[in-house]
């Protein structure tokens, strides 16, 4: 009968005969000169530095969801909110399509979570890594991994703006080429825009390092009412400028008329003195 422990990994201590004599001498020499303790301290410091760098990288490469809204449609704030909600819903549907995986992963989350303590992103990566990592025998898909990290970090969502339908399609093409989750919202046309109008493109949730190269040049979506007020202010300023120019022109005309009247009177006086 085969030994059940035959293929299990085992620990190797300093008395293992497989360790070479040169390694033993190096260890003994280190003990004599206190080098071993120094080496251990240096290793601990390096591990702390590496752990700190990894935490910084995790914080910088946060998971987020982006909503790309068409600014050329002139949609109201309420309309934009509804269209963005559709995009978020569709993206979550894609993430949840493997519901059994999600439930298993969330059950594992509850087991790992300490009572009364908020879940940190690091706790998620401990059992759901960037690569496909088995969770209780089930392999988590990349979308599910990003979803869990996104939820653990607070479900960050950002709304950005594109100037046209063509710009939105170009972004979607780049996103799909990069393997990013996308959701394109077409409006039914019951209120503000014609039926079938593409209003919003949703991206994510996934790492910022994958999203930023595609969307980093876009500006944050502006409140349409603020944009309208700003446009009205510009027009008011333009009207005031033109009115000022008109007033100045009218003043010049008045001066010219006064000069003409003065010249006519002078000519009349001159004619009377000369007997014309």
Please indicate the percent range of residues in DSSP E strands (runs of 2 or more).
Answer: 5-15%
The helix content, as a percent range, equals 55-70%
The CATH topology label of the largest domain is Bit1
Q: How far do the termini sit from each other?
A: 146 Å
Mean pLDDT across all residues, rounded?
A: 74
> In total, how many domains does the architecture comprise?
2
* Strand arrangement in the largest pleated sheet: 5-6-1-4-7
Tell me, what's the shape? elongated
What is the name of the CATH architecture of the largest domain? 3-Layer(aba) Sandwich
Low-confidence blocks of residues:
1-33, 117-142
> What is the CATH C-level name of the largest domain?
Alpha Beta
Radius of gyration: 36 Å
User: What structural class results from the helix and strand content?
Assistant: alpha+beta
Main β sheet profile: 5 strands, mixed
The total of beta strands comes to: 7
Number of helices: 9
In N-to-C order, the SSE pattern is HHEHHHEEHEHEEHEH
CATH superfamily of the largest domain: Bit1
Structure write-up:
This protein has 276 residues and is α+β, with helices and mostly antiparallel strands. The protein folds into two domains: 63-222, Bit1 (3-Layer(aba) Sandwich); 223-276. The chain is built from nine helices and seven strands; from the N terminus they run H-H-E-H-H-H-E-E-H-E-H-E-E-H-E-H. It has helices at 21-32, 35-60, 77-95, 99-112, 121-125, 142-152, 165-177, 208-215, 224-274, and strands at 63-70, 134-135, 138-139, 157-162, 182-186, 198-207, 219-220. The strands form two sheets. It has a five-stranded mixed beta sheet with strand order 5-6-1-4-7, with helices on both faces. A two-stranded antiparallel sheet has the order 2-3. It is elongated and about 120 Å long.
